[in-house]
Amino acid sequence: MSAFNAEKYISQAIESILKQTCDDFEFIILNDGSTDKTREIIQNYTKQDKRIRLINNNKNFGLTRSLNIGLEEARGKYIARIDADDLSEPERLQKQYEFMEANPEYALAGSWVKIIDSEGREMTVRKLPTDIKLIKFNFIFGKPCLWHSSIFFRKEEMDKVGNYDEEYKYSQDLNLYVRLLKTKKITNVPEFLIQHRLHSNSIGKNNSEAQHSFYLKAIHELINNYYHISREELELRDRARNQKINKLKDLKIALKIDKKIYINFLVKEKLDEEQVREAEKTYNRKKIFIIKGYFKNKLPKLYQWLKNK
Q: Which terminus of the chain is more solvent-facing, meaning fewer CB atoms within 10 Å of its CB: N or C?
């Protein structure tokens, strides 16, 4: 766990780990140069539970570097991630450990996720794909399908890929998955083992231009495994997928790029009939969304009229 000015939620996050049914672990917490009471709160817990190892960064290094420091210090066969504002269900570590022991072909496993608000009230849930081919597909065509705070992985596999790439200030997890996917299998345990908290300071709630740029860089590498596109084509496709185009020419180009990626993915990954059906639903849903975005921007009054019908 890396924590920066996390005094509001960190006690709940720590206690969710200390109450795990699997109790044989070390709990490395990195105080990443916090200026609030985060360090003091962690120190209080270290007095109560010797499994906690507190590492104090002498300044704010940021999440990526902080996590790598933790990885360098970790001594276990497996490593689990948790953010300082999220919660782990009591059986999380036990269930992920048992899964990884029973399935040595996997380098990493996340889990299904409950989304909670700032007060801990459940907002929605995410039943994330478990099939590796559909995980790849969803990275490219759908939504995020591995929650960083839920991952549980083999330390030896992380050592092989060189831990997190410190060039990535954001989307360091996506870049990691893309690198692992070159040679290894990753999945999600199909149980709700994590509660991810959305609040005003959540990284996901503050999607800056810089954050999005790192996301595009990471996803570009994955897409190029199936269809080589330029950075300009990637950015055009991205604008279309975020309903930010109003030129018919751009719409046609974006749809053409998407279709080529889609067809090449199906051919290269050799999806079975059920996988194809799932992929087709995701692809067509996003295609309709892109087309709606064009009309929303080009003909907003007509779009609104049709929407109200």
A: C
Placement of tokens 């194809």 in the chain: 276
- Do 167 and 72 lie in one domain? The reply is yes
Question: Number of structural domains, the chain?
Answer: 2
β-pairing verdict for 2-3 and 27-32: parallel
**Residue for token pair 């790849």:** 136
In 3-state terms, what secondary structure has residue 32?
A: strand
Cα of 153 vs its chain's centroid, Å: 14
Nearest by Cα to 170 from 148, 151, 155: 148
pLDDT tens-digit series, residues 212-270: 999 999 999 999 999 999 999 999 999 999 999 999 999 999 999 999 999 999 999 99
In angstroms, the CA 190 to CA 187 distance is 9
Domain ends where: 205, 234, 254?
205
141 and 85 both lie in a single domain: yes
Query: Residues 119-178: pLDDT tens digits?
Result: 999 999 999 999 999 999 999 998 879 999 999 999 999 999 999 999 999 999 999 999
As a whole number of angstroms, the distance between CA 309 and CA 304 comes to 9
SS3 at position 31: strand
CB neighbour class for 117 (10 Å; exposed up to 12, middle 13-18, buried from 19): exposed
Backbone φ and ψ for 195, nearest 5 degrees, come out as -115, 115
pLDDT value for 60? 96
Domain of residue 304 covers 226-308
Domain-located, residue 210: no
Q: Which sign does the torsion angle of CA 231, 173, 275, 292 carry?
A: negative
* Distance separating alpha carbons of residues 21 and 96, to the nearest angstrom: 12
16 and 147, same domain (yes or no): yes
3-state secondary structure of 22: coil
